[in-house]
Amino acid sequence: MAVSTFGASKLFVKVGSQPSDLHRLPPAPPQISVRQSGKAPARRSVEVHASGNVYGTNFQVSTFGESHGGGVGCTISGCPPNIPISQAEIQFELDRRRPGQSRITTPRKETDTCTIQSGVSDQGLTLGTPIHIFVPNTDQRGKDYTEMSKAYRPSHADATYDFKYGIRAVQGGGRSSARETIGRVAAGAVAKKILKQLGTEVLAYVSQVHKVVLPEGAVDHDTLSMDQIESNIVRCPDPEYAEKMIEAIDYIRVRGDSIGGVVTCIARNVPRGLGQPVFDKLEAELAKAVLSLPATKGFEFGSGFAGTFLTGSEHNDEFYVDQNGKVRTRTNRSGGIQGGISNGEIINMRVAFKPTATIGKKQNTVTREREETELIARGRHDPCVVPRAVPMVESMVALVLVNQLMAQKAQNELFPLSSSLQEPLPIVNHV
Predict the structure, then answer these.
(1) Over 50: is that where the pLDDT of 250 sits?
(2) Which of 413, 385, 400 is nearest to 178 (CA)?
(3) What is the DSSP letter of 424?
(4) Are 177 and 388 in contact (CB under 8 A)?
(5) How far is CA 354 from its chain centroid?
(6) What's CA 415's distance to the chain center, in Å?
(7) Taking Cα atoms as reference points, which of 162, 404, 369 lies closest to residue 275?
């Protein structure tokens, strides 16, 4: 048997005494070696693993659907049983993400009404079996994309989808549309409910819109609440800066342009010990998860890039023992993670989002036939994505933490803990 790796995709080729199926594959740069398997029975098969639509190992989420198809959603595998979850709880998160919720978001009118089609009992408890959540699309306008069927939108995924697949879903951008994130937010609602049972909370808010930057320390991460975040349409917990951000979006919106911003996310009461050394560090898992969201361009946690201006003596988080006998840090420049493992302090990170690619201004581009042209994109799009990105970031962080919690439970609590150093994960009292 020979194995050849193409990036994240794996090609498995089993070769017996009969000719292989390699001649049916298109020419490719990577070399494929074939080794005879001795006296193995004659068989031949080609199996290609090239998905990219699934996240997680223990708590696994698969999203499906396209912007202008029949609907979108997710399937969750590995959810623990007996977790109370209702359609209303999932709908609350989807309503925070849905289009048309205010004048500073896309005017597309979708209710994004979800239905749980499997995996939850009539009593509202998870069964431990796959949970399937579906949201229909109801306000498609395919005609808005006539020009874009031929010309590529600058900085959008139109061209790269053609480069990769040789075909693409023109209407709404297909899988590159932010409507794909409905499945993530629905799954994130379930993950957040699991975390809540353990006392862990994930909250995100807008900390920058274009040149309006919320000053460092303006938000108290120890007391930040969902009510503060949801108190205005831009989801900035500081009322004064929220107004400035809304004005900036309004200014650019009426001019047919777009702007970007930053979403800050925190996770409170995260158990110690989450994350793995080396390749699967907790911050690496968080970065991969949030950077898989549409329009993301940057990620930093803790002191981030600003930490490069400090010396070691200025940057180090000194330890102390609190009144409960726990080892804590006096500062939190590490962002709640040291050595790739959570240390029990608040995890904090910042995610940068670019200006929306689809704008109402004339731009130079090329057609699929490689002819230079001009394009004014039509359709309904956000002048700034960050207000609706808040629940998306929360959801991805929650999915990471639930996966890490389950891995921690499986690896490190299978046998007795070292009581002087390790803390057991909180116990959930089932209904």
Answers:
(1) yes
(2) 385
(3) P
(4) no
(5) 15
(6) 33
(7) 404
Nearest Cα neighbor of 214 from 194, 190, 240, 232 is 240
Give this prediction's pTM.
Answer: 0.86
Cβ atoms of 96 and 142 closer than 8 Å: no
To 10 degrees, the CA torsion angle through 156, 159, 163, 165?
70
- Look up tokens 């917990």; give the residue: 237
Amino acid occupying residue 365: T
Please give the backbone phi and psi of residue 409, each rounded to the nearest 5 degrees, phi first: -60, -45
Q: Tell me the per-residue pLDDT of 381-425, one tens digit each, with 9 for 90 and over.
A: 889 999 999 999 999 999 999 999 999 999 888 888 888 888 888
Residues in the chain: 431
Residue in this structure with the two tokens 């740069």, named with its chain if needed: 29
Exposure string of 233-269, with b = 16+ CB inside 10 Å and e = fewer, is: bbbbbbeebbebbbebbeebbeeeebbbbbbbbbbbe
- Mean pLDDT, to the nearest integer, of 47-61? 83
**DSSP β-bridge partners for residue 204:** 265
Higher pLDDT, 28 or 372: 372
Give, for 163, the enclosing helix (H) or strand (E).
Answer: helix 158-165
Please state, in angstroms and rounded to a whole number, the distance separating the CA atoms of residues 318 and 91: 42
Q: How far is CA 219 from the centre of its chain?
A: 23
Q: DSSP class of residue 184?
A: H
pLDDT of residue 141: 60
pLDDT tens by residue, 70-126: 899 999 999 999 999 999 999 999 999 988 788 888 777 778 999 999 999 999 999
Report helix, strand or coil for 178: helix
- DSSP run (H or E) holding 172: none
Q: Which two tokens stand for residue 302?
A: 């803790």
Q: Which of 202, 337, 330 is nearest to 266 (CA)?
A: 202
* Residue 398: alpha-carbon gap to chain centroid: 9
Do 234 and 261 touch, CB atoms closer than 8 A?
no
What is the distance, to the nearest Å, from the Cα of residue 3 to the centroid of all Cα atoms in its chain? 30
Q: For residue 34, what pLDDT is reported?
A: 45
Cα separation, 399 vs 377, whole angstroms: 34
